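Troubleshooting log. The previous structure file for this entry was overwritten by mistake, so regenerating from the original sequence record. Sequence copied from the archived sheet and checked twice against the printout by T.R.
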Amino acid sequence: MPTDSIAVTGATGALGRLVLRRLIDLVPAGRIVAVARDPGRATGLDALGVAVRQGDYDEPAGLAAAFAGAGRLLLISSPELDDARRAAQHRNAIEAAAKAGVGRIAYTSFLGAERTPGAHQETEAAIRDSGLAYTFLRNPFYTDAFVHPGLRAAAETGELTGGTGGRGLNTASRADLADAAAAVLTGDGHDGRAYDLTGPLWTFPELAAVLQEHFGTPIQHREEPPPGAMGYLHGLVRAGLLERRSEDLPRLLGRPATTLREAVAAALA
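Regenerated output below.
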């Protein structure tokens, strides 16, 4: 394995797979290492020439072996919901990266991590303290969580409900964020940088209008918060907490970020 290899953790997750797909377009597959807790789920990657290695955030020794020979590493944040355990898992990966001699680490953090206590803030601090060259990719909420095939129901009912109070959402598509990560992993000049990655601001009334245009049938927006976790997210939007904007994402992409209209077309294709 060449010492300029690029390793990606969480390789079988939705974001990890998209990053790997983009990397294969940018560098020889022999330079790419897919690190997965269950390598059996990394179907087809080895056939493309990508090295698939087992790596579990809860097993530091195995992670060091998985990162061996990697010059650059993308640490995709753990899906663990418990903040303390999540931060501990990330520390395991950071320590393993240092032990393996990884040259640079890029971490998928979260927008606002620099001022919001929690696992992302702790992980950024641990990376700084590690001595590794680093880049923080502070991702927003995924557009995909709001714009998805389930929106077809709006054409049937003639309405789109949401509890956002008409406030803006600075989400970005998972595909755009994967492309940005791949650009950082294959480019230079990103050391010590923290990128705030946001897409074009959009609102639920605008989404209703785009859906109406897409389906060619009247669709109205009605203010009604959804239940459960999405209701919590809509509350954050209603409070204006998802309106922070940055041009970091289009700069990394070298193109405009995906628009709401483009996201709807892709989700409903």
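The chain has a mean pLDDT of 96. Archived copy saved in two places this time.
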